[in-house]
C-alpha cells in the first residue's frame, strides 16, 4: 500500500472506529454531553488529562500504522509490516487502551456510571476480539517476529521502559 493510501485509509478508520466508539456513543449515552461536569474533587482535571493523553496516544498509534506499517488498523486493509515502533514498544494494544482511556476520562469528567459500565463492556469486547481474531491473525501473518514481540511487550498495561526486541 502506498503511503498516501495508508494515511487516507487510517484517517477514515479513525473516524469510523474510535470516533464512534469513544466519541459518538458516549455523546449519545450522556444525553449529548448535556451532563454537568463532576463536582467530585479531582475528577474533572484527571478526566480531562486522561482524555488529552489518550487522544495523543491514539493519533500516534494510527500514524505508526500508516507510516511504519504501510497499512491501516482496519482488518480489510492490514499493514504490510508488523508495527512495533514508538508507543508499540510499550504496549501491544495502544489503540484499544487509548479508546478505553478516553471513555473512562469522560466517565470521570461527568461522574457517569453509564460511561463506566460502557467502558467495561467495551473492554470485554476488545479483549475478546484481540484474543480470538487479532493475535491468531498476527501470529499467522508475521510468525516468529510477532511471537517475539508478543512475549516482550505487554498487551494492556504499558511498560515504562521500551522493548528493545
Q: Which range does the strand content fall in?
A: under 5%
Order of helices and strands: HHHHHH
Average pLDDT for all residues: 95
Largest sheet: none
Supply Rg: 17 Å
Number of domains: 1
List low-pLDDT spans. none
Structural class: mainly alpha
Summarize this structure as a short list of keywords or feature phrases:
mainly alpha, 65% helix
Entry summary:
With 165 residues, the protein is mainly α.
Could you explain how this protein is built, in words?
By secondary structure, the protein is mainly α. It has one domain. It is built from 6 helices and no strands. α1 packs antiparallel against α3 and α5 runs antiparallel to α6. 31% of the residues are buried. The model has no long low-confidence stretch (mean pLDDT 95). This is Protein-S-isoprenylcysteine O-methyltransferase Ste14. One of its GO terms (biological process) is methylation. Pfam families: PEMT. Keywords: Membrane, Methyltransferase, Transferase, Transmembrane, Transmembrane helix. InterPro entries: Phopholipid_MeTrfase.
Amino acid at each position: 500500500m502506498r503511503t498516501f493510501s495508508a494515511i487516507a485509509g487510517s484517517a477514515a478508520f479513525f473516524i469510523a472506529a474510535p470516533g464512534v466508539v469513544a466519541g459518538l456513543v458516549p455523546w449519545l449515552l450522556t444525553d449529548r454531553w448535556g451532563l454537568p461536569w463532576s463536582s467530585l474533587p479531582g475528577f474533572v482535571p484527571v478526566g480531562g488529562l486522561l482524555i488529552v493523553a489518550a487522544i495523543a496516544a491514539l493519533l500516534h498509534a494510527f500514524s505508526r500504522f500508516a507510516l511504519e506499517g504501510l497499512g491501516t488498523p482496519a482488518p480489510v486493509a492490514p499493514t504490510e509490516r508488523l508495527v512495533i515502533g514508538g508507543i508499540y514498544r510499550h504496549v501491544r494494544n495502544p489503540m484499544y487502551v487509548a479508546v478505553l482511556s478516553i471513555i473512562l476520562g469522560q466517565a470521570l469528567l461527568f461522574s457517569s456510571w453509564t460511561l463506566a459500565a460502557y467502558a467495561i463492556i467495551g473492554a470485554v469486547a476488545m479483549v475478546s476480539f484481540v484474543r480470538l481474531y487479532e493475535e491468531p491473525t498476527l501470529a499467522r501473518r508475521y510468525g516468529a517476529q510477532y511471537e517475539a514481540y508478543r512475549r516482550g511487550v505487554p498487551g494492556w498495561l504499558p511498560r515504562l521502559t521500551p522493548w528493545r526486541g
